[in-house]
Design goal:
Length: about 325
């Protein structure tokens, strides 16, 4: 981890969703390493939308990266022969639909790795959205107004290339409608490209991974990326996350690359074992951690995991 984590810097409200936005040092600006050097390994594609950086990461896969805001969210466009899947739709800043229209003429299915606002906020631009049928997800389809999430998009959190027509004062996450409900284990056929939905709650109650066995890729959303992983919001569950890490590890022989929802893409599958071991280590009371207010941060080198304190494992609530 390149930066020292400052747990007290939490600007979001109840969502407290994703990414590594709580990182900062006195010596460096948070945006100094952006865009991250690892992106230079991929062919960059000009779509005429400066807010986004688009990279071709395989013959039939694009990554759409937001390097100008400290969430550094990533969505993925998976091309089949008959349809395309857009995995997540970022923060609703810039015209994501215009980017996708430059990349493909195929019909688009939007499938979210989870419904935190930084993954669904351009959903409203698209006609066909798949999702889970559960109260948490359905509540998030109502969107979030400026009072709820405006504090996450300010002049302090953006460093360049803000679209001309964007206003901080009116930033919000627009409502969207789920057109088709999907379940754990479902296969979504894009034409010569099948995407499997696997339910892995923990970071949020509605987190999934999306597995493309043919192309040996796993879209991990916020359940793994090489930075602090958040498992402490009110709706997060470490007990669920622990179980989900074991489920993800079960697919280690089916994929070669992890495609996370923030920061960097095409991460080695060996991280699935690191994540599994990390969740086991958190259960060991002798494993050191950094104490924050009602939170613990466990450092595992390339990534860390931030959980509630006391740890929500084996704790019964509501009675
Ligand atoms: Zn999230």
């Amino acid at each position: 981890m390149r930066y020292k984590l400052i747990l007290i810097l939490m600007i979001t409200t109840f969502l407290v969703s994703c990414s590594k936005k709580a990182q900062e040092t006195a010596e460096e600006n948070w945006y100094d390493p952006l865009p991250r050097q690892s992106w230079s390994a991929f062919e960059r594609v000009d779509t005429g939308q400066d807010w986004f950086e688009v990279y071709k990461i395989s013959d039939n896969t694009f990554a759409i990266y937001e390097p100008n805001q400290w969430q550094e969210a990533i969505s993925y466009l998976l091309l089949g022969t008959e349809k395309a899947m857009l995995v997540d739709t970022l923060q609703g800043i810039g015209d994501l639909k215009a980017v996708i229209d430059k990349l493909t003429d195929l019909p688009i299915i939007v499938m979210n790795t989870h419904t935190h606002y930084d993954h669904v906020s351009s959903n409203y631009q698209f006609d066909t959205i798949y999702g889970l049928n559960m109260p948490y997800t359905l509540n998030n389809t109502k969107g979030h107004n400026h009072d709820e999430i405006g504090s996450s998009v300010t002049s302090e959190t953006i460093w360049k290339n803000l679209p001309d027509n964007f206003s901080y004062d009116f930033y919000e996450s627009k409502a969207f409608k789920i057109d088709k409900f999907v379940n754990d284990g479902d296969i979504i056929d894009l034409g010569n490209r099948e995407i499997q939905v696997v339910y892995i709650p923990g970071h949020s109650p509605d987190s999934v991974i999306l597995i493309d066995q043919e192309n040996r890729m796993m879209m991990t959303g916020d359940s793994f990326y090489p930075a602090p992983i958040y498992v402490y919001s009110d709706s997060a569950s470490f007990q669920d996350f622990f179980m989900s890490a074991q489920i993800m590890f079960g697919y280690r022989n089916d994929v070669d690359y992890l495609l996370p929802g923030h920061n960097e893409t095409m991460q080695p599958v060996s991280y699935l074992n690191e994540l599994r071991k990390a969740t086991l280590a958190i259960l060991n009371p002798t494993t050191p951690y950094e104490q924050g207010e009602n939170r613990r941060a466990y450092d595992f080198g390339d990534f860390s995991i931030i959980v509630k304190d006391p740890l929500d494992f084996g704790i019964r609530t509501g009675d």
